[in-house]
Amino acid sequence: MSDPLGSYPHFRLNFEQQGKRAKELLKAARAGDPDALARFRSPPRLAEAQYLIAQDLRFENWAALKRHIAAMTRERESIQAQAALPPDARSPLDGDLRTLHIRCGSDLQMPLQNAGFGGDFHEHNYPYLIGPVREGPGCLEQRARFLVENYADSRDPPLQYEAVLRGLERDEQRLHESADYDRVVIWSEFDCYDQLVLVRLLGHYATHRRPARLELINIGEFPGAIRFLGLGQLPPEALRMLWAKRSQATPAALKLGLDTWRALISPDPRGLALIMRSGTRALPLLAKALHRHLRELPSSINGLSFTEELALQLLAEGEMNLIYLWGRSTYERDPLPGQGDLQLRDRVLNMEGASARVYERRPGVDRHGEARPPWTDVFTITDLGRAVLKGEVDFLSLQPPERWVGGVQVGPGLPDWRWNEESGDAACRQARVR
Question: What is this structure's pTM?
Fold first, then answer.
């Protein structure tokens, strides 16, 4: 059956269209097109063309592509059939148990409803990858101040401290009350944002009352025509397919979540690095996320975080605005993308607080001629920025503003933790003088 692309053209694939792409690739190769011909290992044949198209979409082979599209079509038909029934005759997919779905953002709230789920939804979205995560007295107040200082003006109306603090307190209370559900399902993907929220949740359930069933949907990939970045890209029928593959949170996963959370909130990052090097078998996606997170510590080579270094590398190739820089980083360069546009904005603009500029910024406009600073501002690397990028100048010698990497505070007068990519570990130099 043909599957219309609808609102999700990159992940709602059409089998006839993919078959046409395979035939076009074969035709181009047989006509001598060098790019097409270079893809084939043997004289061009349709079977290999189909295999190559399947590989482009991240399938093992053509048969797997066909099965996937057929399964997506069946689930979409099920959604349509349910929607055609009177509301009192519909059977929610999660209706067998009183269910709470937890996600690190609001992106799945409506898609889950559209997919036929009826359970409650809870958004737990503190940015543990970039904000302070210390525990103990005053920790929620510290997080609230961070959120207001960094994101107040990005919301309408602007964030207010008391309201943010009350929200964090309600979030904690909601976690405790979630144990009253028959089933709690945590939805997450591979990136640092999701994985750090996941260990926060698992750490909570490891030490507090938890529901009778605690289940995980924790994925690292989903086939499609563009790079998979997260669950929010997927159509409702894909969520139904993932639901069928959910798994119980094992005792080993709960323990690893708790151990990782305790290491994350520590001002000493070496415990987190040790967990990263262990391979995190109970949570297979965690090790790579921890590696990417730890690379946000100042580099032992040039004092730059990975995001800062990546930004300067892109600017060294040519000036660009912040929108384009985020897109290039996310879709092309970052080995484990996942930080939101606001997190990248904060990490890049924070560099302007140094004693000398590693890039210059001037006003710009988007393709419609509208100015939307800082996103449309144009960034140009300076000679100093190139020297820092090469390791000729240590970025921290320029006294950039304080920032957080989990429980590690980076700044003048603080322990000078550096990440050594070659050894896969962190080491502390003498504290820098203010």
Answer: 0.94
